Amino acid sequence: MSSMETQNAAQTPENQEALSQVTPRFAETPAVRKKLLYQKIAKIIFGLMAAAMIVPLLLILSYLVAKAWPTLSWEFLVDVPKRGMTEGGIWPALIGTVYLVFISLAVSAPIGILAAVYLNEYAKDNWLNRIINLAVINLAGVPSIVHALFGLGAFVYAAKMGYSIISASLTLAIMTLPVIIASTREALASVPIAFREACWNMGATRWQTIKAIVLPNSISGILTGVILQVSRAAGETAPIMFTGVVFYKAVERGTLFPYYLNEQCMALSMHLYTLSTQVPNVQESLPYATAVVLLGAVLLVNATSIALRVYMRSRKKW
Amino acid sequence: MKDIAGQSARKRPTRPLWAVYGEKVLEWIIRLSGISAVLFVMAIFFFVFREAVPVLFSPDFSLKEFLFSTEWYPTSASNVRYGTLALTAGTFSVTALAMVIAVPFGLGAAIFVSEFCGPKMRETLKIVIELLAAIPSVVWGFIGLTIMSKIISQTTGAPVGVNVLNGAIILALMSVPIIVSIGEDALKAVPDGFREAALALGATPWQLVYRVLLPAAKNGLLAAVLLGVGRAVGETMAVLMATGHAVHIPSGILDSVRTLTANIAAELGEAPAGSPHYRVLFLTGVLLFSITFVINLSADLVIRGIRRKGRGA
């Protein structure tokens, strides 16, 4: 851009004459050359910094997949762990994770969406709103292990739910609440204020406006947030470790509903931890395959959310 | 009743009573959900603190020892000692080294994404960063335990590959996405007028970055770093698996350590509910909660400071 402007300035006749007498047009003075050299160096260095966090990661991920390859199969997904978890598949863990994710979603999605509606549509800019914002930020920043302690103290002992799927899911729900609140809020905020004003002018109440205008126009954004919550909940280990997930639970191969809600279950993330640190003599590719399945599931869910967002943005009418 | 035009005024349409009151109820539910975040934060503090409280008054426990002693022998038969200084040192050594790695790379990548690359590349990089942020911590831990530890023990000749350096690299990789995305937001928040003025004076993008953008966005970048620190301090599974399990103050980056978070995760399963050991672990949780609370609060204050200044300008 800067070079274009010099060009324009040089093209007015009198300037041109004056300049061509002093130096040939566009010749670089040493200062300019130095400046451009620094610019090039800076660009390369920052580019390398960006690359430095992506390239090794791609290498690591491909290494994981390569290590896991011999074990990855449909059979691995639907089979149960065998011989003291040193062989076999991951079915009980997989289905346990599905349980935890959906129950936590059922709790946190309504609360999170309504909380975002409150923050974006109702709250005035006052001390209460500021405290709520601060609480959301802090809730997102509470270490996962502290959530685990909370789940243990509140759900397992105080509410007497015991070590169970329901305790673990509630802990996960509270932990992932900020994800939904933040993304829903963003979606709601992207609906232009004029839409609301038009609706209010028709005599609609606040809630009618929200129901008829705001939510339908931001539903895909809200959905993105919900999907993100799924991926976050599926990957968490620490909060469920002490509230309802066990190392091993016998489950029949391929059954869809093996657990009751007041029982403990297995989970994929915990299974990976168990396989890689607690069980001796595991078949070598087994933890790698578990890691790849967990990672694949999480990244797939995230990619869906991103794709949805890109699609939505391309269709946006305002 | 007649109005000015002489027409009989029609009855104003009314909504059924249940709809009016239903809406009221619904709005109260929305308000309640709105403050739920506050309730949950208070509940977390309350329940964690409640489990920890009895030990504060027990005769074997002294708060001074808890905070300032390096001797952590929770299961010793003769002389039980609960000093968390070594664990705190573990947390801070790993976090500090992680930040030494992550801050330059994170801010560098943020600058690259925001100022040096074209729109298409920017979109791609942002998506990659988002995916990076989504990788579960247990997978990071697994990478540290298997791949990174092998690389470290081969290149440095350290006896064990799970140590401060390993944990720090893993934590750095985990906190870089946060630093990049918040840092990029901070750079984007600098008014375009600043950029245009600098470019009009003939500045190259690099001169623009270090003469104009970095000073203007320094608070936002600071907040990005603080949030990165917050994430690193609170991370559990990755450091549990990647830093080894030696409870002592590390003497070098190739020493194994244990962090506050990893300590809770490693020992909570073995501590019988209600025992002093169990309560001390909850007290460690309170300590962690307080540390991250302070970090997040200061990040928020820093960001709020920028917003206020931005509005005034």
What would you note in describing this structure?
The complex is a heterodimer of chains A (318) and B (313). Chain A has 318 residues and is mainly α. Chain A has two domains: 2-68, no CATH class; 74-315, MetI-like (MetI-like fold, Orthogonal Bundle), CATH 1.10.3720. In chain A, 74% of the residues lie in helices and 1% in strands. Chain A has 13 helices and two strands; from the N terminus they run ααααββααααααααα. Chain A has helices at 2-11, 13-22, 30-68, 74-78, 91-122, 127-141, 144-158, 165-189, 193-201, 206-235, 238-241, 268-278, 285-315; strands spanning 81-82, 87-88. A two-stranded antiparallel ribbon of chain A has the order 1-2. In chain A, helix 5 (91-122) packs antiparallel against helix 10 (206-235), helix 8 (165-189) packs across helix 10 (206-235) and helix 9 (193-201) runs antiparallel to helix 10. The longest helix of chain A has 39 residues, at 30-68. Chain A starts with a helix and ends with a helix. Residues 1-7 of chain A have low confidence and may be disordered. Chain B has 313 residues and is mainly alpha-helical. Chain B folds into two domains: 17-57; 81-312, MetI-like fold. Helices cover 73% and strands 1% of the residues of chain B. Chain B has twelve helices and two strands, in the order H-H-E-E-H-H-H-H-H-H-H-H-H-H. A two-stranded antiparallel ribbon of chain B has the order 1-2. In chain B, strand 1 and strand 2 (81-82) form a beta hairpin. In chain B, helix 3 (85-116) packs across helix 6, helix 7 (192-200) runs antiparallel to helix 8 and helix 9 (218-234) packs antiparallel against helix 12. Chain B is flat. The model of chain B has no long low-confidence stretch (mean pLDDT 85). Chains A and B meet through helix 1, helix 3, helix 5, helix 6 and helix 7 of A and helix 1, helix 3, helix 4, helix 5 and helix 8 of B.
